[in-house]
Amino acid sequence: MGKATLLILALLFGSPLLAQDHVVQLRTPVHITKKLGENWFLAGWMIGNVRQAQPDNINLFGGLGYKRNNWWLETLVQRQWSTKGHQWQLNFRFNRDFGKRANLYLELYPVSSRRSFSEVVIFDYRLSDRWKIGVETENLHKRGRDSYGGGSRLSFRLVNRGPVTLWVTGTYHFRNQGEPRFFRTYVITTVRF
How far is Cα 73 from Cα 105, in angstroms, rounded to an integer? Predict the structure, then answer.
């Protein structure tokens, strides 16, 4: 690994330690798919979510996916465990590739316990085989005032061996007035069977 790569990774992981005006989060998504036929696949996710100043949680997702040449859609059932309680939710994920460079990811999930729903929108642009830049939003729509936020992303691919891919991503979110901004690091593993 070159010096420039180590410097970028140090910034992705070290920046939260230097700033004092936001909270720090770490997400560890593991996405596993198993092909069932030409277009159908089983989909599973396991996501650990460590959050400063908020309860941590672990999420398991399982469901069915449908894939075409440049897009896929997953319909999932989610189970979340946290110190605030456990809940079941539905989760819908869509991914669209625009050629070799650009990628759009959408996620929508109703939160029945709060009578609300959330969406995540991520747009990435591939600079090289190992680097991507992009933007990300994460919003919660609820009674009263909705929670909006988003910011920039920087991603670096650490591993690409056979069916396994591992990316490290750093993102900084600006939030509604009165809500804390956050720096989130993702360690994303994808395994395809």
Answer: 10
Which residues constitute the domain of residue 125?
Answer: 3-192
Residue among 5, 28, 3, 22 nearest 129 (CA): 5
Q: Number of folded domains in the chain?
A: 1
Q: Which two tokens stand for residue 76?
A: 């999932």
In this prediction the pTM is 0.87
**Predicted confidence (pLDDT) at residue 16 exceeds the cutoff of 60:** no
Mean pLDDT along residues 40-49: 96
Q: What are phi and psi of 113, to 5 degrees?
A: -65, -20
Q: What CA dihedral angle connects 125, 129, 130 and 135, to 10 degrees?
A: 10
- For residue 19, the 8-state DSSP code is -
Structure tokens at 24: 């720090």
CATH of the domain at 144: 2.40.160.40
Amino acid at 65: G
Cα(100)–Cα(42) distance, integer angstroms = 25
pLDDT tens per residue across span 118-177:
999 999 999 999 999 999 999 999 888 899 999 999 999 999 999 999 999 999 999 987
